[in-house]
Structure formats: C-alpha cells, structure tokens
Amino acid sequence: MTRAQGPIDVVIAGGGFVGLALAIALREALGASFAVIVADPTLGSSRAGDERASAIVAAARRLFETLDVWQQVADEAQPILDMVVTDSRLDDAVRPVFLTFAGDIEPDEPFAHMIENRTLIAALAAKAREIGVELRSTAVAGFSYPPLPGDGRERSLRHGYAPHIDVELADGATITTALLVAADGARSSIRERAGIATHGWSYGQSAIVTNVSHERDHRGRAEEHFLPAGPFAILPLKGNRSSIVWTETSAEAARIAALPDGDFRTELERRFKFELGEITAIGPHLVHPLGFFVARAFIADRIALVGDAAHLIHPIAGQGLNMGLRDVAALAEVIADAVRLGLDHGTADVLERYQRWRRFDTMSMGLATDGLNRLFSNRSTALRLVRDIGLGMIDRVPNLKRLFIREAAGLVGEVPRLLRGEPL
Ligand SMILES: Cc1cc2nc3c(=O)[nH]c(=O)nc-3n(C[C@H](O)[C@H](O)[C@H](O)COP(=O)(O)OP(=O)(O)OC[C@H]3O[C@@H](n4cnc5c(N)ncnc54)[C@H](O)[C@@H]3O)c2cc1C
Question: pTM for the full model?
C-alpha cells in the first residue's frame, strides 16, 4: 500500500557525508518552514569493519564549522601539521623525500585534519535530527512524474518541465517534492534510472584500509610513499594511531587481505617501515576497489546529483569527499538564492547554474588525480626521474608550493560561500 506525503521542498536519497551536509545546509539557510527529508536504509551507521578516516581540507572544515558540526568533533580531529612525499621501490632501504608541506594555510589553520568517518557521520546525523530534518531509514526505490499534457515531448527538451517529482520509498511511501537529490553514492540507482551515463574507467587497483596503533608520536605528520604498485599513505589520527590507505593491484590486494593475521602484519610492516616504532595493534581491514568516473550530466528533470553519485576519483590526493562538499556548498547556495527570490528551486534554470558551477571544476580535479595516479603507479625508471625532478622543483619554489597547498585545501577558484566559512 502506498502512503502519499508532501509537498516536501527537497528529498535527499543517501545519508552519507554529502546527503546529510546538504540537508543541514538547507535547513540552516532557509529555516524550519523548508521541509527536507533524507532517506537511507543505513542511516547513521557504517559498514562493519569499515575503518575509513578522511582528510578534511581547510575549505571543507570551514563548511562543517559554519554548519555547527565541526565544533562537536573538533577534539577527535587530528590536524595535519606536516606532510612528506617519497618515491621509491618497495624494498629500497632509504626512501628519499621529494616533497614536504609544512605549516598552515592561514595563521593557526592547518591545511587539513584527519577524522574517522563514523565520528563525523554520527555528528552530522545528530545535527540533522536536532534541526528538524526528517530522517527515514529506508531506500529511495524509484521516482515518477505527473502525466504531461500533450504528447509529452517537451520534457526531454527542457529540464524542470514537470511541476513536481514523486519519490517512491522502499517502505511504501510516496513523497511529492520539488527536487530529488541523488546523494546515493558511486553506484547511484537514481543516476541510472534518470538515464545519466558516466565516463570513466576502473584502475584495476584497490585500496586496503586499516588503522594501526604505534609506539611513537606521529606529531601530525602525514606520509605518502609512492611505491610501484600505488601509493601507501600513513595518515595521522588522534593518539599514537594512524590510518593506512594502501593501494595495490586488485588481485594483489585481495591476496594480501585474505592472509592470516601474522602474514598480513609482515606485508604491512614491509611498507610501513619503523619510523613510528613498532606497530602495537592493527584494526580490521576492508578492500575498496578504485575507479574514476564523471557523470555526463549532474542534473535531470527535477533531479540533481551530488558527491560520489556525480563523480568518483582515486583517493591518491584524499579529495573525493571534499569534492562532494563543494557540490553541497554550490547546490545549497543556488537553492537558497532561488527560494529567497520566490522561485521554484527544482527548475532547469536553477539546476543548470549548479551544473555549470561544478562540472568543469570536477573534470579538472578528476583528471589531475587520474594523471597523478598514472604518473606514480608504475615501474618505469624514466618516469620516476621525470616525476622526481618535478616534485623537487615544486619543493624549491615557495610560491608554487603555496599555490599547490591552497589548491589542495580547496581554496582556489570560484569557492562557494559555505566553503569560505560564510553562512548562506
Ligand atoms: C580508500 C578511500 C579513502 C578515501 N579517503 C578520502 C579522504 O581522505 N578525503 C576525502 O575527501 N575523500 C576520501 N575518499 C572519498 C570519500 O570517502 C567519498 O568521496 C565520500 O564518502 C562520498 O560521500 P557520499 O555521501 O557522496 O557517498 P557515500 O558515502 O557512498 O554515501 C552514499 C549513501 O547513500 C546510501 N544509498 C545508496 N543507495 C540508496 C538509495 N537507493 N536510497 C537511499 N540511500 C541510498 C548508502 O547507504 C550510503 O549511506 C576516500 C575513498 C576511499 C575509497
């Protein structure tokens, strides 16, 4: 039996970082009369064994601060105070350092913080609930439009023709809304139902992710070791703990992940080295297949794609979520501007402004991370020489290095208001 509900201003499919952050941004900007529903069957929980932590760059942290979420998790976030990049073979005795990033983006503002995903998701869900976002523990199963007058051809010519969209939930409810936002991750069923294709490829690489405890203090240092199979990152967490993001070919990652504990530790220690002393504990590990794609369109009739539903990139530069938060900030700004002008926020003009804003930036960041991965994940000695000269040059030119750090911190280009730390 279906139960009808509505009209609701925005329905968001997916309560990951991106869906929850958007819901909070909209309620805080537009107040209690702006009705927002987030539907997700796994609301507020994370996959068993998923130890992932994320590097939250300065611009993204400003957004969370503006949404009054960062304040709840700040004590559990580890600032990255220093970063080193090395380039070597697996068994090289010494890993020469080619690039170092130190210091703050602004006085007392580190360029990024590391935080465990489950901590941040729990804080976002609590904030959303507190400010009246309706959270529904169910999936979006489909959507439909009211019948069109005439022969219906106009809809494919112009987004936003339909007067509203009806969103069907797996629990049997149907919700009438002005806008459905697909924040349902890389395998977005809404993107597929909307007929939006993606262009991209699989890397044939996977990341093994685990957290370790170690003897010595990391002093806020992040390390990225470019090994021939892919980057091996040691990222500082609160306490004497680090998050390991370890890239291998998918076959090798599956082999390593299936090893008995003792053999897994041996493989880990070969890459970890012992700069931080002995590893005293290893948490559970999961394997994440890695790929790259960008959706051919970020919008359809009364639908907007955000986060991994719109684009997936290699975690080499820790930018996937940060890109999703740029979508959030841009879409929230576009919607808030439209609503304040008394416009219907689900129409083509509004959604196209969002798409124009985000697609170019997404393509350039996506291709940059793709190029970085291709440049580093190989065994060619000639390429190694080229990249090491390149890294060495960046390291020696302070203005160039500063530009790279500001870019990595999300502070370059047409930065939406929330990412500048300004409320909507
Ligand atoms: C190994 C690894 C390390 C990474 N490290 C970083 C990092 O350091 N920094 C960074 O910025 N990014 C990082 N990323 C990327 C980052 O994790 C993702 O970009 C981010 O999680 C995407 O968030 P999202 O909300 O768009 O999607 P997701 O987190 O995938 O959330 C999607 C949600 O949608 C729900 N859902 C699915 N289908 C439906 C449906 N039909 N109806 C309703 N709900 C649905 C799911 O249950 C899920 O909760 C990393 C990624 C990997 C793989």
Answer: 0.90
